[in-house]
Amino acid sequence: MIVLGLILLVVGLLVGLSLLTTIGGVLIVVGAILWILGSTGRAVGGRKHFF
């Protein structure tokens, strides 16, 4: 999710589409939150690890 967010963020900045930039930023933030919660051992969405 973080990689997809980075790709969309870069493409949005290069092309000039603010929608892609916004979606990319949101995906990076959500992916980072899920990654942190999963790495602390907390179950996220019924899963012990979020990949």
Keywords:
mainly alpha, 2 helices, 71% helix, 0% strand
Could you walk me through the main structural features you see in this protein, from its secondary elements to its overall organization?
The chain is mainly alpha-helical and 51 residues long. The protein has a domain at 2-12 and 21-38. 71% of the residues lie in helices and 0% in strands. Helix 1 (2-15) runs antiparallel to helix 2 (18-39). The radius of gyration is 13 Å and the shape is rod-shaped. The chain starts with a helix and ends in a 12-residue tail after the last helix.
Compute the number of helices: 2
The chain-level structural class is mainly alpha
- What is the number of beta strands? 0
Note the overall shape.
rod-shaped
Estimated share of beta-strand residues:
under 5%
Main beta sheet strand tally, sense and closure: none
Instruction: Give unreliable regions as ranges.
Output: none
H-E string: HH
> Roughly how much helix do the residues carry, as a percent range?
over 70%
Keywords: Hydrolase, Membrane, Protease, Transmembrane, Transmembrane helix
GO molecular function: peptidase activity
Protein name: Membrane protein implicated in regulation of membrane protease activity
GO biological process, one term: proteolysis
Short overview:
The protein is mainly alpha-helical and 51 residues long. The protein has a domain at 2-12 and 21-38.
What's the helix and strand layout?
Blueprint lengths: L1 H14 L2 H22 L12
